[in-house]
Amino acid sequence: MQHDYDLVIIGGGLAGNCLALALKDTGLKMAIVEASTAEQLDDAAAGDRALALAAGTVKMLEALGIWQSISQAATAIKNIHISDQGHFGKVRLSAQQENVAALGYVISARDIETHVAKLVNAANIELVCPARLVGLMAGNSAVNVSLKRGDASLNLSARLLVGADGGNSSVRKLLEIAQHITEYEQTALVTTVQSSLPHNNTAFERFTASGPLALLPVNTNHCAVVWTRSSEDADALMSGSESDFLAELQQCFGYKLGKFSLAAPPRAFPLSLIRAEKMLANRTVIIGNAVHQLHPVAGQGFNLGLRDVVQLAEMIINQHQANQDIGDAEFLTAYAQSRQKDHDRTIGFTDTLVRIFSNDWLALAAVRNVGLAILDHIPTAKTLLTRHAMGLAGRLPRLGSRR
User: How many CB atoms lie within 10 A of CB 43?
Assistant: First the structure.
């Protein structure tokens, strides 16, 4: 049975659903294909992770009609405290100094995923689920997609196929798009702690010899923890006792928030920088984690992926309104080129932070701490850093700037 669409989106997670919502009023015929059931997505461990939403990301979510329904579940970041363990350098960023309500917000992935999925259902966007992508072939006027639904096969055709199916993207694999992988030999330990002192809406980024430690404010006295350790240290911490884990975490962070107690079991995620060699093939483009997976040091992964989504949506709308082919090769090339600068800047910034701050070489430690101390006392430089942290250092797509 042949189904014809203007656009087929592979992946019903945040990237795919946000793209569909951005295009819901265009008249384009769309379908979202998702391999997991709603129950499986809701039970996934990845839903426990905390997302740091930059102020620029909040603007885009607001323009898409998403932020209005999730803002109550988010915790504002009003201050950012950056320090280097065992050294004097620190930088303090403040929403009040920048005359903004917040520098960003923290929300659980599950909260935002659940709300976005409800909005997609309410918009009557067709969802093919559960269905697994098993093949694709592009022709001059359409891309043909082969799906497996249980024992049944299903074929779809579309003018444009978008791969928004995450780090293990089936679309990318079927297109044989190579990846450049940098192994950091580090593991992120993710958990939530309750502190005996309030965090006062402060996000902490503490650099240590083994990697960065981030504490993001959640509720009044809870913090989401993203703790980067060497893979060997992480294995030892995960196999040890809860008390040993807490003692090591407390020693690494200190007592600025008083004593910690675990509010969620720790989970471990190996870290690497992964970047696809290209974003497009015939009538197909990949976005979000299918293209790039970043170290969590600056919390930029979801923010960068959403900018992919909103830029693509804006260009598709313009192309469609001009009665032009949304799967045209020149159009998709223009999209990939429009994302190149943002990808290079954000990935480069994140990778540089990891390399500069994940070691204890004395000469480098001295230089970086002098730099942090100077930065903390130069208002214009601090404002630039704050705008970068807020996701406002570059141009936001016009679609994502609408109020």
Answer: 11
Cβ atoms < 10 Å from Cβ of 348: 10
Q: At 295, which amino acid appears?
A: H
Three-point CA angle 59, 103, 184, nearest 5°: 100
Any residues with CB less than 8 A from the CB of 172 and at least 6 apart, and which?
Answer: 163, 179, 276, 286, 290
Phi, psi of 322 (to 5 degrees): -90, 10
Sign of the four-CA dihedral 33, 39, 40, 45: positive
> Running DSSP on this structure, what letter comes out for residue 367?
H
CB atoms within 10 A of CB 99: 7
Rounded Cα distance, 144 and 155, in Å: 7
CA–CA separation, 60 and 308 (whole Å): 11
Q: Which two tokens stand for residue 313?
A: 């949506």
**Residue showing tokens 């701050």:** 357
- How much of the chain, in percent, has pLDDT values that exceed 90? 63
* Cis status of the peptide bond prior to 296, with omega within 30 of 0: no
What is the pLDDT, as a whole number, of residue 82?
A: 83
Residue 34 DSSP label: -
* Residue in 218, 213, 242 with CA at minimum distance from that of residue 49: 218
8, two tokens: 């087929």
pLDDT per residue as tens digits for the range 340-386: 999 998 888 778 777 665 544 444 344 444 444 444 445 554 455 55
User: Where are the alpha helices (H) located in 47-160, listed in sequence order?
Assistant: 55-63, 67-70, 109-122
What is the radius of gyration, based on Cα positions, of the chain?
A: 22
Which tens digit of pLDDT belongs to each residue from 192-222? 999 999 999 999 988 777 778 889 999 878 9
Q: Any residues with CB less than 8 A from the CB of 5 and at least 6 apart, and which?
A: 29, 30, 31, 156, 157, 158, 159
Distance CA 388, CA 47 (A): 26
